Amino acid sequence: MENCLPLLSDDLLRVIVSDVKNYALSNGLGLRCKESPNDDMMQLLPISLFPSPFPRATFEFAQSIQKSVNKLMHAVSLDSSFLCEQLETTIAVDEFTKNLLLTHLKVLKEGSAQENSLGLFRADYMLNEEPQLLRQIEVNAISVSFGGLSNKVSKIHEYVMSKYNPAMHKKESFPQRDTCFMLAKGLTDAWDYYGVASAVILIVVEDTVINVYDQKAIEFAVYHTRPEIKIMRKKFSELPSITRLVGNQLLFVENNEVAVVYFRTAYTPEQYNQSLWDLRFLLEKSKAIICPSIHYQLAGVKKIQQVLTKKEVLEKFLTESNEMEAVYSTFAKISGLELNEQGNAALAEALNHPHKYVLKPQREGGGNNFYGEEMVGILSSLKNDRKREAFIVMELISPRPIKNYILRPSYPVSSEPEEIVGELGIFGTIMGNKNEILFNEETGYVLRSKAVGVKEGGISAGFGILDTPFLY
């Protein structure tokens, strides 16, 4: 299927654009204005005008392996010796990853009052065109976004197709998953395991939140399904002065016992200072269930992703052959840049064929990667420098472009459809400890797209749009 677009006159296009913008804003599909973020102003979240075709079999395969991806992340996170060994070269040159690992090791040494960890993960994939293969881009472990809004986009696209392209509209082509409520259930299930009726769920956020409506959608879903659960929302930076441990284990923020800590921040160095690293340690050693725990966050760093692409490593954590092979089939080629023969070969390959690779640091969130000449410049400057070990080099995926219209705030819609490529995210929720997994679920999807030629895909970072897979 080429696209989901009907033949449109300029006049009809303007009508549809106006209709969709009004529908979107009427249903909370927006961002705070970056220029003046406040509670009184909302702007349109960048979205596609129509859904984008996506093969049903590929979509369902990505769904089918998510519980295995969750299980893999859980198993890796519990192997502290493996984390230390694999991150040894990285932490020598990456202060942020070093602080994460040192905090984790300090918690292991001093002990934690809570054995369970909660993960709300998202595995991201692109569908390579030639050959047509699903390729994992990354697994996001902390502050995973757009689960609160993906369903709203799907409903918009169902509306658009039924009203403006009825000949192609099929309800069964839209995946029926309420991602927002399923992610909220992960939080409430963790709250139930904590077992104190007066305890709260603490949502930890940045000082300035642009993607607030995605976060609030999950918060409101908790309220609508479990109104007895109190939610607190606090800035990461304000927590040190209002947080304490009682009896060396119960976590209190102000005068509220905390059952679950849900991070929507804390994934970049700029979001920390020493008092916040001290706070992170305090949270991790408390009785509260942390989402994600620091060892879950470590399992998501790019170096670990790279090492897991080796089959002999992967099969240590996924011992069932069929499960391991299914996950392994999605892996792209990823190489480390250690100062050794293999690292030198990977660097030379990337320098000789820069159009085939992307350079990635150990970070989550959009806007961190390097491509083309920028990648060449960085790698050339680090040829004989250990600082190169802070990066991995990944094979660049080449998905088939789809034509669609893009709606962006304050920009006119092009009269001609643009070519876009999509990145499918599959959400997963897991909670467990070293002895057992308490629950493990696939919990929905999001499709993020971007114009051809745009390298990054982060929507809050200003690069991409929200989209919907139209299954065929």
From TrEMBL:
One of its GO terms (molecular function) is glutathione synthase activity. It is an enzyme of class 6 (ligase). Binds 1 Mg(2+) ion per subunit. Pfam families: GSH_synth_ATP, GSH_synthase. Its EC number is 6.3.2.3. Keywords: ATP-binding, Glutathione biosynthesis, Ligase, Magnesium, Metal-binding, Nucleotide-binding. This is Glutathione synthetase. It catalyses: gamma-L-glutamyl-L-cysteine + glycine + ATP = glutathione + ADP + phosphate + H(+). GO terms for cellular component: cytosol. InterPro entries: Glutathione_synthase, Glutathione_synthase_a-hlx, Glutathione_synthase_C_euk, Glutathione_synthase_N_euk, GSH-S_sub-bd_sf, GSH_synth_subst-bd, PreATP-grasp_dom_sf. Mg(2+) binds at E138, N140, E364.
